[in-house]
Amino acid sequence: MKHLRKRLWAGLLAGVILLMGACGAGVKTEKSQNPAREDMKAVWVSTVYNLDYPTKATTDPAALKSQADSILQNCVDMGMNAVILQVRPSCDALYPSEIFPWSRYLTGSQDQAPQGDFDPLAYWVEKAHELGLELHAWINPFRVTKSGDSEYQSLSASSPAKQHPEWLVQHEGNNYLNPGLPEVRELVIQGAEELARNYDIDGLHMDDYFYPGQDFDDAAAFQKYGGDFSDLGDWRRDNVNRLVKELGERLHAIDPELSYGISPAGVWANRNSLPEGSATNGNETYFNAYADSRKWVKEEYIDYICPQIYWYIGHKAADYDTLVRWWADVVDGTDVRLYVGMADYRAGNSSPSSPWYGVKALEDMLALNKTIPQVSGEVHFRYQLMVRNPEIVTLYQKEYARPDEPDTPEEPEETVKPVLNRTDHGAYIQGAEGLFRPGDSLSRAEAVAMLARLTVDENGQALYQEEESYPVSFSDVAGDSWYASYVGFARKYNIVGGYEDGTFRPDQPVTRAELMKILAAYFPGETGSASFVDVPETHWAYQAVAFGAGKGFVAGYEDGTFRPDQPVTRAEAVKMINGALGRIPEEGHLAELISRNPFQDVDESHWAYGNILEASVAHDPDGTLA
């Protein structure tokens, strides 16, 4: 898709070039201002090896569209404002190109197009923009193969690597385009220009794969093009510098509003190697990949730098804190934005002794970033490993998509005080097909539906009436949805609110902190104390968690944490709600309930067995079956 503003700009620029040429003058294109946004919240979506998209190679447009829709919507739901999609993983393309063949990661065979002339990139751009997301095209400049000679032999005859084998260098069994050849650098630039001309992309993004190692066999190219360089390393860095600089100039000549950036590995050089380096002892891209990323910033070749700082705060060799501050100092005084590349893929380690246990490391990094003015955002690696981790999803929903107190509604519209029905012991939760699914999460819509049915006035009369209309004003709650009236009811009686962007997010899992805050709303003014290490007094749900813990509605974990952002399971939910209802399973009447256990996946060995029966089997307060 070619956007109108690009066509207008290209036409205007062509006229200027002709006019300047007629006057015998050169043309210099300069950006009027940095087009890179100041609040980047982005996700890397990898296509190589089918890591993120598509999860399985296919020529079916419907499957490709469906996966794109899901990824983009999930990114919106996490509060992201940009997606960085890998469109050229290995000298190939996920779009119709006159330079590169179709990627085998897309359709299964190189140079095989999707059915019906479907253009995945055009679809991604259109759908991203419909959802308010930026779409940045991510390219790998020099990689040709990742699976050795067999992959090279299977390349299409249309591949530049097959048409120009003299451009290749074999390194550790794989093939790479030689950065020392002017023809190769021109190929990379023309490929980027093709993207800028033909698609309304918001950015062009290069990753950190430049020279693959110090023992790269480019002696012949050095002899031919080395010129006055006496040092091979300096010549290699100059080759990369030339590419980075000219690529930016030619992209901005096509579209000055295009954001152009690079994501090098996090350590430019250690201080013990170069005095300007960081106080680290990590892999130095200045010497190993020949990427002089500090120069690109100081000379303003790029709009943003996105160093991949994939270590935790306190790491001995490459401390996150040290590196973020070093990069902040590098960009300070320049017109280059700093986005921090974060290692979300490392989070979620199952060992409590690991620095990557849960999402605490990510929380600490985000908190640090907020204190450093030069940090203009974050980019997260990578999509599938984020969306599969509910804690990560919840973290960014909290950090990016909602205020500090996400579920604080406005003043109540009614003077009637809603209370929980602590008298009747009816069933308020059900299973399906004989299963309770105790480990599954509970959505926000499911939670408010249950609590609406349990809400009464101070005289014990049910407040929720099926025949009454409860208007909803949330943009993502359709009036004909099964939960619409429950959401409207909960909002009317100040039980739960929505988010600053006008959404309710009915399908989003309820976190432990959220459910406790909803329950605490039925007990206004009551307080408690809590000593969970991950719920400080500054936490938005501190009072609610403290109250619930004090009343015994909820407990923490053996390691002293509460894990407030962890989605609450169905088993945990009924224990918390039973506690708020005063419905504590007792041995005296539990035997009667056991005889009616409708669930195949819950028996007496389950820790929440009594609470599940208490919530799902209707009975009188003394245990007599209703």
How does this structure look, described?
The chain has 626 residues and is of the alpha/beta class. Helix content is 36%, strand content 8%. It is built from 22 helices and twelve strands.
Question: What is the overall pLDDT average?
Answer: 88
Count of helix runs: 22
What fraction of the residues are assigned to beta strands by DSSP?
Answer: 5-15%
How do the strands of the widest beta sheet line up side by side?
1-2-3-6-7-8-9-10
The beta-strand count equals: 12
Distance between the termini: 64 Å
Radius of gyration: 29 Å
List the SSEs and their pairings.
Blueprint (H helix, E strand, L loop, with lengths): L3 H19 L17 E6 L15 H17 L4 E7 L15 H4 L12 H11 L3 E6 L8 H6 L6 H4 L4 E4 L2 E4 L4 H17 L4 E4 L12 H7 L6 H23 L4 E4 L22 H4 L4 H6 L5 E2 L14 H12 L5 E6 L17 H11 L4 E6 L2 H5 L2 H12 L17 E2 L23 H11 E2 L27 H9 L19 H9 L21 H10 L18 H12 L5 H8 L14 H8 L10
Parallel strand pairs: 1-2, 1-10, 2-3, 3-6, 6-7, 7-8, 8-9, 9-10
Antiparallel strand pairs: 4-5, 11-12
Helix pairs in contact: 2-4, 7-9, 16-17, 18-19, 18-20, 20-22
Short description:
The protein has 626 residues and is of the alpha/beta class. It contains 22 helices and twelve strands.
Question: Which properties best describe this structure?
Answer:
626 residues; 22 helices; disordered N terminus; two-stranded antiparallel ribbon; 8-stranded parallel β-barrel; single chain; alpha/beta
